[in-house]
Design the sequence.
C-alpha cells in the first residue's frame, strides 16, 4: 500500500520543465486574460438567474462575495505552488509532489469532472444565447435542432446542434496552437469585459429599488429542476448560493494549468491568478446587484410568466424593462463571451490530461504533442468529441453543482498541500509565499469543505459515484502504470 503514497520528487518536475515541448508564449496579461476569460461567462451570463431564484434572491451579491473570499485563500495557495512548480497539471501536480499519488489521482479525477462538466454546461448555455442571437436577425431554428432528446417535447429526432458545432470549432482552434487560441481569447475577453461594464453602468439607470426589498428573503423551499424541494433564501440560501455558483470562479485555476506555456511562470502565474480573481469578483458583485434591482428574483421562475428568463437572465432583464437594443447587445456579448469560457476550460482540461499522462496514470496517448503546432492534439480531439456529443444530447441542470464539487475539493486539497510542503521543505525557493500561512490554510480548508456540504444531495451523490469510479480506474490501470512505481520509465519519456 506504500506505493499509493509515493510522491513525485521536485527534481522530476524540473526535468519535465526542461523537456517540455510546449511553446512558451504566454505573458502575465495573456495569462490574466485566460483567467478572466474563464471566470466571466458562466457566472454572469448563466448562473445569476438560477442563483437568485433557487438560492439567495437579491442577496446573491453576498453569495458571490462569500465564494470570492473562499477563492482568495485557495488562490494564494495556488500562487505559491505555481511559483514553485510551474508545470501543466494544476492542483494534480501540486498534490503529487507533496501529499502522494493517491491524493493526486483523486484531485486529477475531480478536475476532469470539473472542467468537462463546465465545458458541457457552458456549451449548452451558449446554444441558448446563440439561438436568441439568431432571432435578432429573424432566423428561427427549429426546436429539434436546439434541444437535447431528453428535454424535447415534440416527436422524432432532436439534437442540440449549436452546442455540438461550437465545441468542435473550438477543438479545431485549440489543436492549431496555443498562441492562436490565446490571441482569440484576448480579443473576446476585451469585448466581454466591456459588455459587463455596459450591463453595470446602463443597468444602474433601470434599477427598481423595491426589487431589493427584502434584500434577504425569508427562508422557504423551492423546487429544483431535478424535482427535489430544497431550502432557499435566508442566510442558508446565501451560503447554498455561494456553493452553487462556485464553479463560476474556476478561471483562476485554469491559469495554473497553463504554467507550462508561460514565458516567466514563477512570477507571471501568481500575478495572473490573483489579478483575474479580484477583477472578476468585483464584476460579479456589480452585475448581480444590477440584475436583482432590474428584475424581481421571483420572475426567474421557469414555470412563471417569463419561463425563458432563467436561461439568459441578463439579456431578459433588459428585455423585460423594454430595452430591446440593450438586450441585443448583451445577447451578442454573451454569444461571443461564452466561447472563451469553453475554450479556456478545454485548454485547461487537456493540460491536466497531459500531466497525468506524463506520470503514467492515464495512457500516453494524452501527452503526445503535435510536431508542428506543439499542442497535445490527441487529448484535445478526444476531449472535444466527448464534450460535443454529451453537450448535444444531455440537459445540463445539477451538473453545475457537480462542477462546484470538483472545484471545492481541489481548492481544499491545494490549501493542505501547500502547508505540508512549507513544513517539509521550508528552505525551498518560493518566488511567492502565502502570508499568514496557518490562518489562510485553515480558512481555505474550512470554507471549501463547508460549501461542499451545502451542495444539493443529488450532486453530492453523483460526485461520490464519480470518485468511486475513479478509484476503480486507478487500481486497475493507474497504479500499475505509474512511473513512480516504475522509476526506469523516467528515462524513457
Sequence:
Amino acid at each position: 500500500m506504500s506505493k499509493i503514497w509515493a510522491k513525485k520528487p521536485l527534481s522530476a518536475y524540473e526535468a519535465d520543465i526542461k523537456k517540455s515541448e510546449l511553446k512558451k508564449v504566454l505573458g502575465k496579461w495573456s495569462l490574466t486574460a485566460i483567467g478572466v476569460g474563464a471566470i466571466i461567462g458562466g457566472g454572469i451570463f448563466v448562473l445569476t438567474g438560477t442563483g437568485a431564484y433557487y438560492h439567495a434572491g437579491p442577496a446573491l451579491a453576498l453569495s458571490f462575495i462569500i465564494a470570492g473570499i473562499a477563492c482568495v485563500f485557495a488562490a494564494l495557495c495556488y500562487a505559491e505552488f505555481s511559483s514553485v512548480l510551474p508545470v501543466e497539471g494544476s492542483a494534480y501536480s501540486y498534490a503529487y509532489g507533496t501529499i502522494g499519488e493517491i491524493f493526486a489521482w483523486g484531485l486529477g479525477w475531480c478536475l476532469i469532472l470539473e472542467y468537462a462538466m463546465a465545458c458541457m454546461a457552458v456549451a449548452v448555455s451558449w446554444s441558448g444565447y446563440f439561438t436568441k442571437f439568431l432571432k435578432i436577425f429573424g432566423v428561427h431554428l427549429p426546436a429539434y435542432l436546439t434541444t437535447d432528446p431528453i428535454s424535447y417535447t415534440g416527436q422524432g429526432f432532436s439534437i442540440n446542434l449549436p452546442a455540438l458545432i461550437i465545441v468542435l470549432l473550438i477543438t479545431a482552434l485549440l489543436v492549431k496552437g496555443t498562441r492562436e487560441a490565446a490571441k482569440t481569447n484576448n480579443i473576446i475577453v476585451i469585448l466581454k469585459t466591456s459588455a459587463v461594464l455596459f450591463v453595470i453602468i446602463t443597468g444602474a439607470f433601470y434599477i427598481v429599488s423595491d426589487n431589493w426589498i427584502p434584500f434577504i428573503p425569508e427562508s422557504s423551499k423551492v423546487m429544483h429542476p431535478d424535482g427535489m424541494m430544497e431550502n432557499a433564501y435566508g442566510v442558508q440560501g446565501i451560503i447554498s448560493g455561494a456553493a452553487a455558483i462556485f464553479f463560476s470562479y474556476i478561471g483562476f485555476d485554469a491559469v495554473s494549468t497553463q504554467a507550462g506555456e508561460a514565458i516567466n511562470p514563477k512570477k507571471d502565474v501568481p500575478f495572473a491568478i490573483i489579478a483575474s480573481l479580484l477583477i472578476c469578483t468585483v464584476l460579479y458583485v456589480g452585475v448581480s446587484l444590477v440584475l436583482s434591482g432590474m428584475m424581481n428574483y421571483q420572475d426567474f421562475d421557469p414555470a412563471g410568466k417569463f419561463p425563458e428568463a432563467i436561461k439568459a437572465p441578463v439579456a431578459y432583464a433588459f428585455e423585460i424593462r423594454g430595452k430591446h437594443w440593450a438586450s441585443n447587445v448583451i445577447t451578442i456579448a454573451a454569444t461571443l463571451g461564452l466561447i472563451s469560457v469553453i475554450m479556456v476550460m478545454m485548454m485547461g482540461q487537456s493540460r491536466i490530461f497531459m500531466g497525468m499522462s506524463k506520470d503514467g496514470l492515464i495512457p500516453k496517448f494524452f501527452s503526445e504533442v503535435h510536431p508542428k503546432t506543439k499542442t497535445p492534439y490527441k487529448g484535445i480531439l478526444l476531449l472535444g468529441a466527448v464534450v460535443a456529443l454529451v453537450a448535444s444530447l444531455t440537459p445540463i441542470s445539477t451538473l453545475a453543482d457537480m462542477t462546484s464539487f470538483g472545484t471545492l475539493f481541489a481548492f481544499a486539497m491545494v490549501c493542505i498541500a501547500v502547508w505540508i510542503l512549507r513544513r517539509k521543505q521550508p528552505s525551498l525557493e518560493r518566488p511567492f509565499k502565502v502570508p499568514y500561512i496557518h490562518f489562510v490554510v485553515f480558512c481555505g480548508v474550512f470554507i471549501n469543505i463547508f460549501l461542499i456540504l451545502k451542495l444539493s444531495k443529488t450532486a453530492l451523490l453523483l460526485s461520490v459515484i464519480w470518485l468511486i469510479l475513479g478509484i476503480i480506474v486507478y487500481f486497475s490501470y493507474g497504479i500499475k502504470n505509474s512511473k513512480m512505481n516504475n522509476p526506469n520509465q523516467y528515462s524513457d519519456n
